[in-house]
Design goal:
Blueprint (H helix, E strand, L loop, with lengths): L2 H11 L28 E6 L6 H17 L5 E6 L4 H13 L4 E4 L8 H9 L4 E4 L9 E5 L1 H16 L7 E6 L5 H14 L5 E6 L5 H15 L4 E6 L2 H13 L15 H9 L5 E3 L2 H17 L9 E3 L7 E6 L2 E3 L5 H5 L6 H4 L5 H7 L3
Parallel strand pairs: 1-2, 1-3, 3-4, 4-5, 5-11, 6-7, 6-8
Antiparallel strand pairs: 9-12, 10-11
Helix pairs in contact: 1-10, 2-10, 3-4, 5-6, 7-8
Length: 366
């Protein structure tokens, strides 16, 4: 990411979360028994799946780079991807404990199922940073985006797109997986904006966030409600939005109703440019990855994380977890250039392939 992403990070660090309390108190150091002196730190990084483009394209390389930068090139990241299998992820943690990593960064497949493995790590003297999803168990630190705000941003964008037609028909809500605690927060935020202002005809919790499951759900919703009655779709992320839009097209829905998304995946951005998807939520991954790396390196050394973790949040099992929550941006046609292109997430050439060249030219992207 270029300097713009770093600037976002600086702004994120200053976000006021007074309701959650201050993290500049005791408890900002891990009770680790294997703290490292020097920079030869071994960081275990566990990501949940590889269907969503962000994890392999952004999170992994960004965290690896940040760890290297923070340790004068001496830190090592040991990586594993669970491919959406909670049992596999628990086994991966066992392996990393056996291999004596100094700290773990974990993006949980299933926030509840991972609690026992988090405790195993803690019992082995290995501090744990929950990344992107608030894992249960005795975690030491947490960084993510303001996930309830994500849902609010999506809901507000959908209302904006619907305008005076908000109650002319039904909307379909396509939430994420029930195993992901973030999905519940997205849903809560969206409902806080949409309830009472739209008619929710059908609502689904989508198994494993899979686009094909969203596609099946959307087809069922169109059959139940009638294709001419659906005026908008709340989709919790871009992958599902792709499956939803495919179902809408297959049913002959034209023009397409506004569809939300999240993650600013390349295919999602291209659909936005083409007018098939109304919006996505752009989450600047660089500051999130940098925060996780800073927390991990500090905890491995037994140092304070108070300058990074500027708030506290509660999980169902652990109170007052030192945390940093990073703000998000609503991505529409109007700001593609000022977000993902400016921050070097994608180049204009990557977005504006032959299929999207005309739409890009209209938006001044080439």
């Amino acid at each position: 990411m270029r300097r713009a992403a770093v600037a976002v990070a600086a702004g994120a660090m200053a976000v006021s979360l007074a309701a959650c309390g201050s993290a500049k108190e005791s408890g900002n150091k891990a009770d680790a028994t294997n703290t490292v002196k020097g920079n030869a730190i071994k960081v275990g990084l566990l990501l949940p799946e590889n269907q969503t483009a962000r994890y392999e394209k952004f999170d992994k390389p960004l965290i690896e780079k940040a760890v290297k930068d923070l340790t004068a090139g001496k830190g090592e990241v040991v990586y594993a991807n669970a491919k959406q299998d909670a049992t596999t992820q628990n086994s991966q943690i066992d392996t990393m404990i056996t291999n004596k990593v100094n700290v773990l960064i974990i993006d949980a497949v299933d926030s509840k199922a991972i609690a026992g493995s988090v405790k195993k790590a803690k019992d082995a003297g290995i501090p744990v940073v929950a990344y992107d999803r608030l894992a249960e168990g005795p975690i030491d630190a947490y960084t993510s985006f303001d996930n309830e705000e994500v849902g609010k941003v999506q809901g507000k964008a959908l209302l904006e797109a619907l305008g005076d037609k908000a109650k002319d028909g039904q909307i379909v809500m396509m939430n994420g997986s029930v195993t992901d605690p973030n999905a519940a927060l997205f849903k809560k935020g969206a409902h806080s904006v949409l309830d009472g202002k739209v008619n929710i005809g059908k609502e689904y919790d989508t198994v494993e966030w899979k686009p094909e499951n969203a596609n099946t759900n959307m087809a069922a919703a169109l059959t139940a409600l009638g294709k001419d009655k659906v005026v908008g779709v709340y989709s919790a992320n871009d992958g599902m939005a792709g499956g939803i839009i495919t179902a809408l097209k297959a049913a002959g829905v034209s023009p397409l109703p506004p569809v939300t998304g999240q993650d600013a995946e390349l295919a999602g951005v291209q659909r936005i440019v083409a007018g098939e998807q109304f919006m996505s939520v752009y989450k600047p991954y660089a500051p999130e990855a940098e925060a996780a790396a800073k927390m991990a390196v500090a905890l491995a050394k037994g140092d304070s994380i108070a300058t990074t973790a500027t708030a506290k949040v509660d999980s169902p099992t652990t109170k007052g977890v030192p945390s940093l929550l990073i703000p998000v941006v609503s991505l529409t046609k109007a700001n593609v250039k000022d977000t993902v292109i400016r921050d070097n997430v994608y180049t204009a050439d990557e977005i504006c392939t032959d299929k999207y060249a005309a739409a890009c030219a209209t938006l001044g992207l080439k």
